[in-house]
Amino acid sequence: MGFFLVFVIGLGYLLSYVFDNQLILVIAVVIAVVQALVSYYYSDSITLAVSGAKEVPRKEPFLDLHRIVENLSIASGLPQPKIYLIDDSAPNAFATGRDPKHASIAVTNGLLDKLNKTELEGVIAHELSHVGNYDIRLMTVVVVLVGVVALLSDFFLRWTWFGGGRRRSDGEGGGQAQLVLLIIAIAMAILAPLAATLIQLAISRKREFLADASGALLTRYPEGLASALEKIAKDPEPLEVANKATAHLYIESPFKKSSENRGLMAGLFDTHPPVAERIKKLRAMISK
Amino acid sequence: MSIVLWAIIAVIAILVIWFIALFNGIVRLRNRTQEAWSDIDVQLKRRHDLIPNLIETVKGYAKHEKELFEKVTQARADAINAKGAEEAAEKENVLTGALKSVFAVAENYPDLKATANFQKLQDELTDTENKIEAARRFYNGNVRDFNTKIQVFPNNMFADMMGAKAFEMYAAAGEEKETPQVKF
Fold first, then answer.
1. Does B92 touch chain A (CB under 8 A)?
2. Which of A2, A207, A229, B61 has a 20 to 30 A CA-CA distance from A11?
3. For the residues B37-58, what does the mean pLDDT come to?
4. Is there a contact between B134 and A72 if contact means CB atoms under 8 Å apart?
5. Lowest mean pLDDT among A186-190, A225-229, B9-13, B140-144
6. ipTM for the assembly
7. Is B39 an 8 Å CB contact of chain A?
């Protein structure tokens, strides 16, 4: 995280240096801050609305679901999140909310129908762990930083394309050094958004593993989540309400891949680690 | 000369800050662990509150099981009046055993089992047992964190000085291996 922040600030600094124009950095930071404030306070309502989630009352047929969430909240010491239902037959779930006091968990009808109680517990424990590990807040910050990177490089490329940018008069000396710096800056500007996105996805995958582990610690029963992941991965149905913006929030990538074999490059663009690896790591926790 | 002096002051300052941070960390964890222990009590009380209703419901159909009812009522009273953590844990386990026998007896009365009231009570009690278990897990987790904090190096050297004593885990498994014999 710190590396990412330094990377973004460094990029902004480099660009404003090349153009002797602090304004680029200032504008980008202002936009990023406004975006961050809106996401921080409203991301959970936005996410829930986009997914068509409806809050669920504490009575049949959702009484068991409520009890599972209650009990896991007690076991984790976290305040109980609000519970939402998504009307979709594909099994999946997500958690959202900037901190444990303002958290919500959403599950699909498909999840409730297809999983048994221990598997459901494993999934909810995983989602609750996302809340407890402040993953949602972390990913919001990361996404905003990626946005800043994209904005900065966009500004920069437009300036160069239109031959613009006020330069210092050449009394400075070292015009060659300036040219080299310019070339490096252009290369970085083109690659930066890509690098930033790859970093974001790598962070997302790591936090998924962490949520798996925290969830297993919470239930003291990793087989529950392992078995749930197996069922979810085998299910061929795509989640209708998911889109690329919300895909990373779900417990397993809602887009079904046609082939299991993914090369290294494709693997770098996944929001979630491969299911087989997650299951393997969970089952490895079970000691004899 | 003055640089050496500054360096010494800096080192002492760092050590003091570390020590204060350790002390505060221990205080926080200890308070959390004690709160977690009280949380178990909250769930146990929930169970106590559900039992009279259960007895009344079962009495309606199984009028002759007087001994059983007396046993459960007594176990409940003992658990409520228990003093101190150890006695409380012991009496709660006796109560758990008594409850198990109530449900075992209920198996013989299919009319009773069919009533919505009984099923609801059974669900609530099962859920309460799950909640007690969850509260114990939370307590044990905090005990683990606290004990680890005061046992790792170099904290262990100062733990005694700070009056930090290791907590005991709630080892329910050992006690529940002995199923209390209930005759009915």
1. no
2. A207
3. 88
4. yes
5. A186-190
6. 0.74
7. yes
Contacts of A218 in chain B (CB under 8 A): 137
**pLDDT value, residue A36:** 67
Helix ranges (DSSP H) in chain A = 2-18, 23-50, 63-76, 109-114, 117-132, 135-161, 175-219, 222-234, 264-268, 275-284
In the sheet with A104-108, reading across from the earlier edge strand, the strands are A53-55, A82-86, A104-108, A93-96
Give strand pairing partners of A54.
A85
DSSP secondary structure string, A82-102?
EEEEE--SS--EEEE-SSGGG
pLDDT digits (tens, 9 = 90+) for A157-209: 777 766 554 454 444 555 677 788 778 878 877 888 888 888 888 998 999 99
Residue type, A34: V
Mean pLDDT (whole number) for A92-100: 87
Q: If DSSP codes are grouped into helix, strand and coil, which group holds residue A285?
A: coil
* Residue A234 near residue A246 (C-beta atoms within 8 A): no
Instruction: Pick B2-176's CATH classification: 3.80.10.10, 2.40.30.60, 1.20.1440.20, 1.10.357.10.
Output: 1.20.1440.20
For residue A91, give the nearest of A73, A76, A113 by alpha carbon.
A113
Q: A82 pairs with which residues across the strands?
A: A104
- Write down the pLDDT at residue A143: 79
Local structure of residue A251 (DSSP, 8 states): S
CB-count burial class (<10 Å; 0-12, 13-18, 19+) for B89: middle
Would you tell me the crossing angle of helices A275-284 and A175-219 to the nearest 10 degrees? 50
A64 touching B, CB under 8 A? Answer: no
H or E stretch covering B55 = helix B2-61
The residue whose two tokens read 């200032």 is A26
